[in-house]
Amino acid sequence: MRKIKTNDAFYIKLGAQGEYEAECLTNPGIARVGWVDVPPSMLDGNPDQIDWETIRTLHNSMYKSKGTATNQTNQLKNFYTSGPDVLWITFYSNHLYWCFLNPTVETQNDKTKIRRTMDGWHHTDIHGKPLHFSRLSGSLLTLKSFRGTICTVHELPYLLRKINGETSPEEDRAEKAYSELTQSLQSIIHGLHWKEFELLTDLIFRQAGWQRIGDLGKTQKSIDLELLSPITYESILVQVKSEAGLAEFEKFEQYALNQSASLYYFVAHKPSQNLINASINSPVQTWFVEDIARLVVNYGMVDWLIAKAK
């Protein structure tokens, strides 16, 4: 899919309480609005020749506030007069959906109005990555609470970056800084004494909410950490090694498969290549130095690790 470009974008609510969403978002897709109290005869013909002042006067008789009447008229006007180059978005099932609409407006038997999409509604960026709410800014998502039907999207540059799968200069700098930090932490992790590395592993699991059972490194043969979830009561068995080869990993794997824990972890900051290769299809989860460095950052333990290097 080619890069999306536009100078204007509107958010559209597909019916009160989303009553039109399922119908509209089914391919090939439409956008449906109400305003059933506006006589179809007032909306016939070329949209640019519609007497919008007369419709505004009608709305003045329908709403207590002249501001509300004007706003309703302007929303309906935007639906009728915006061109095929205008981007439309909505939200459904925790995703952002976007499309471009054919300029022709069709009045239905129930007096609702529809415009058909040019090529369907999309809920992924142009590279196929889902536009899930978790990937969107809170500012953009506030549009979900808009009480009308149609409004302008003011964060257009941000919206286009998300749809086009692009990042901002600020994001690029942050990602570069994150990468440099995790890379530098790997060298520090490699230099940890085995007891310190074992303690670091324990602290990471505990920061994640797991509770250690027994003394560190003294739980039982082949196990350095035995952990329990205080919520689900799942258990984890962990073996920690500074340097490890395939033989050590296979020994732990064989032991783990005969236990009744929920998960098994083998943690090593200097694994051999054949260990790395063998771990790909193993039921035992593995953490190597890249994983440890990332977790140190994510769980706010950078200061602790740097202090160990001084």
Secondary structure topology:
Blueprint: E1 9-12, H1 21-24, E2 30-33, H2 52-62, H3 66-81, E3 87-92, E4 95-100, E5 106-107, E6 113-116, H4 138-141, E7 150-152, H5 156-163, H6 169-190, H7 194-207, E8 211-212, E9 225-228, E10 235-244, H8 246-256, E11 263-271, H9 273-279, E12 285-287, H10 289-298, H11 302-309
Parallel strand pairs: 1-3, 10-11, 11-12
Antiparallel strand pairs: 1-7, 2-6, 3-4, 5-6, 8-9, 9-10
Can you characterise this structure?
By secondary structure, the chain is of the alpha/beta class. The chain has 2 domains: 9-163, no CATH class; 170-309, Trna Endonuclease, Chain: A, domain 1 (3-Layer(aba) Sandwich), CATH 3.40.1350.10. Helix content is 37%, strand content 18%. The protein is built from 11 helices and 12 strands. It has helices at 21-24, 52-62, 66-81, 138-141, 156-163, 169-190, 194-207, 246-256, 273-279, 289-298, 302-309, and strands at residues 9-12, 30-33, 87-92, 95-100, 106-107, 113-116, 150-152, 211-212, 225-228, 235-244, 263-271, 285-287. The strands form 3 sheets. It has a 5-stranded mixed β-sheet with strand order 8-9-10-11-12, sandwiched between helices. Helix 2 packs across helix 3 (66-81). The radius of gyration is 29 Å and the shape is elongated.
